[in-house]
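Progress against Task 2.4 (sequence-to-structure conversion) is shown through the following example record, which the project officer requested during the mid-term review.
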Amino acid sequence: MLLASLLPARPVVAPSRRRSRWALPLAWLACGLLLSAPVQAAGAKAAKESCLDCHGDKDATKEGPGGTTISLFVDAARFGKAVHGSLSCKDCHAQIHKDHPGDGNPPPKVACGNCHSDQEKVYQGSIHGMSKAMGASAAPGCTDCHGNHYIVPVKQHDSPVYKMNLPKTCAKCHANKGITDEYKMKFPKVGDQYQESIHGMALLQKGLIVAPSCNDCHGVHDIKRSVDRSSPINHANVAKTCGKCHVTVEEIYNQSIHGQLLAKGDPRGPVCIQCHSAHQIETPANAHFKAGSDLVCGKCHADRLEHYRDTYHGKAMALGKANTASAVAACYDCHGHHDVRRAADPESHLSAANIVNTCKQCHPKATTSFTKYAPHANPMDRKNYPILNYVFIVMTALLVGTFALFGGHTLLWLFRSIWLYRHDSKQFREAKAKIHEDDEQFTRFQPFERFLHILVVTSFLLLTITGMPLKFYHTDWAKAIFSFFGGAEVARTLHHFGAVVTFVYFVLHLSTMLSHLWKRRGYLNDPATGAFQLSRLFKAMAHPDSMIPTKQDLDDFVAHNKWFFGKGPRPEFDRWTYFEKFDYLAVFWGVFAIGVSGLIMWFPEFFSKFMPGWMINVSLIVHSDEALLASGFIFTVHFFNTHFRLEKFPMDTVIFSGRISKSEMLHERKRWYDRLVAEGRLDDYRVKDEWEAWKGIARSAGYIFFGIGLVLLVLIIYAMTSRLSH
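Structure tokens generated for the chain above:
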């Protein structure tokens, strides 16, 4: 400081003058700007207020296209609270002419891109922007989604693009039939579909804001068509898009065979929307999802679906009630959901290490042998399923051969009867009337035999009406029958009940046969030596009153066929005709074949303990074809032989009454009549009071009904006392 004070003074006046030369203009500029700000604000306010002089009128309108009326009213208070409330009208409507509205020019469109350039650029590349540029007048612009004068922040609850409001906003176009038809939109009902989906219900009904809305899958301003490779809904990108929320599922899917195909760029690799749909996504726990899952898988695996439908699983699923899945295995129960892998993959549900546990999900007692069952077996494929192919050929040959032989037999008999009727209809009618009016009656069927026949008829009809729809599951009548019963579960229970009744009458009949054989056991001994001879067993069983075929039946068959062609007299039959014995043996064999195969399918876990699982496939073929053979034979050949012949039409009631007239015996079974006369046993068959014969059955039925009544009484008393005690 001292040194400085001693130095001569520096000339500082000149620099100060230089600074002062700029200071004054800058100061005036600053003052001008400060003074002009209120003026500019006042000008903007004045401009806005001048616009509201007209647009503040609630009744301000103009005529729109097609004679519509467009409101020109702008609510100043509401606009002031909007995000653009601080702007003047001309900030958006910059090109409005000075003499508006008297100039007659339409108001120019608002250019949102002047301020929102980034969003505008993205929008131009979207399906909406490109459609708009190509002249699609209905393509949405900014105001169609965000609104116009009253735009509020996106996260504000009353914003049309707020997450929970977005589905409704998008639906203005995507649920508008006129627009969807005009532009041929792929999902014209997307609005309703989304609302009913698990995503829509979670967002709109439960208020779960984490649930996806339209923009989460399609984007915001960059919405693109699914064919665009950059679109989030492009086939290659769907898994990633869904994986934004379903992270773990995406990781599992990527390791699956489906995900691996997609990663390789193979278009066959299915993605989320192919299994779950795009907008109708429902919870997999929903029975409706399971009911239609086989059809979803079948879109890619048509061959597998076809043979899956050959199994009970597939047929029951196809015949299930609407929106309800039958309690059977669907595709994903065996193959997995998102983790589908090749069977050779150690991680697969169907690998050797895992398949038993997979089967145990439905069949708790499943074994390794049980897993040999082929759920997609093709009986026509001799290379991969030689045993099934052989069984299929044998059963088909049996079916065709039986119907060909006895179908021809029936037609020949019908033509012969028509020929006789046309040549002497009067004698034909008189003979028929005499058969029905003859008062001398004989017993042909004992009460026990008639009782067994009632069991046969009722169980057979029940088995047929609950079983045939499975074989013809693809028909409308099959679905109608299962719907009438209440679904596959009820039909299955009734089918099992019919099977139990079948086993009951079969055992009763076998017991009767053994009882008769025991009474004739002396016939098994050699009359000369008294020693037992096995060779006499057939003779003991094949007596004239039995149903065992003999050489006489073959002779009757030949003679009957000669009569068909007018080459010989009509044969005189014994108590049982050859065609009745065939009916009997067919039922006997059918009950055995259908019964055994049915038991194997009913209790597959038990039978697979001592036989390979593919025997279940064999059983299905035998059971299905034998049931078809039995039904077709009974309803055609047996019905004709018994009821539909001209001399019997419309029904032969002998199986219900047990009685046959003497005239009918002499006409159809003269050999039986002559044998009874020769043996002196005709009076034993003459109709008498049947109470003694029916008494055992009546008492048994009474005891059953009485027992059921007592059980119900006990249950009622127990229910009442339990309620009182609580």
